[in-house]
Amino acid sequence: MKDLPVKELIFSPLFQGIEEKELSAMLNCLSGSVKTYPKNVSIFRWGDKITKIGLVVKGNVHIIRESYWGKESLMARLGPGDLFGEIYACLPQTAFDGTAKAITDTDILFLDLSRVVTTCSSACPFHTRLIRNLLGVLAQKNLNFSRKIDCLTPHTIRTRLMEYFSQQMRITGSRTFSIPLTRQQLADYLSVDRSSMTVELYKMKEEGMIDFSKNLFTVL
């Protein structure tokens, strides 16, 4: 286990409005501990029972769902400051039905959820703010999943791509934007075949609908 990285954590949405000096004491109150995972190692696996929530301190984590036949779907791409596992920690009898995998060498802070949602005996003044922040994080995640569902609703690869690009334009306020996904990750996110998606992207480029260079896209 590593020392608690207070300076890195202060920027997480979970700790918004909480000062560094209060955060150090709060992490001890919440039984915080940090563990390092090498690249491609699973943090949570299918069937795990989860009692602690994870917060990415350093590195990247992918939340992946697998079908019975092994087809993978990328549900979320997480970076420093992002939470995961909180829904299952709220439902400790429900087994985790996916995989949380470290995509790079990654440090994860684990927090005891029961201590997060219950005001501690010392009545630390920032605990209520922490609960409010957690609700905000959950609301943002719900919005992100709604956007993903909107991308999966269209039947063709082209219409799924255009829905995703439309969302990026609304988020950035520009027709030109960078996406945080590789081609394989984008295909997984849209639940389509990578080769077929790549062919469709070049068709759309030839037809003058879009232009792109690596991860930089422009909707024309």
Descriptive overview:
The structure is a single chain. With 220 residues, the chain is an alpha+beta fold. Helix content is 39%, strand content 24%. The chain is built from 8 helices and 11 strands. It has helices at 6-9, 20-29, 86-90, 113-116, 127-152, 157-172, 183-190, 194-206, and strands at 33-37, 42-44, 52-58, 61-66, 72-78, 83-84, 99-102, 106-112, 176-178, 210-213, 216-219. A 4-stranded antiparallel β-sheet has the order 1-8-3-6. Strands 2-7-4-5 form a 4-stranded antiparallel β-sheet. 25% of the residues are buried.
Task: Give the tags.
4-stranded antiparallel sheet, alpha+beta, 220 residues
Brief summary of the model shown:
By secondary structure, this protein is an alpha+beta fold.
Mean pLDDT across every amino acid position: 87
What is the helix fraction of residues, given as a range? 25-40%
Distance between the termini: 50 Å
Q: In percent terms, what proportion of residues is strand?
A: 15-25%
Name the shape in a single word. elongated
H and E string? HHEEEEEEHEEHHHEHHEE
Sheet having the most strands = 4 strands, antiparallel
Looking across the biggest beta sheet, what order are the strands in? 1-8-3-6
Report Rg: 19 Å
By oligomeric state, this entry counts as: single chain
Structural class: alpha+beta
Strand tally: 11
- Tally the helices: what do you get? 8
Unreliable spans: none
Summarize the helices and strands and which ones pair or pack.
Layout: H1 6-9, H2 20-29, E1 33-37, E2 42-44, E3 52-58, E4 61-66, E5 72-78, E6 83-84, H3 86-90, E7 99-102, E8 106-112, H4 113-116, H5 127-152, H6 157-172, E9 176-178, H7 183-190, H8 194-206, E10 210-213, E11 216-219
Antiparallel strand pairs: 1-8, 2-7, 3-6, 3-8, 4-5, 4-7, 9-11, 10-11
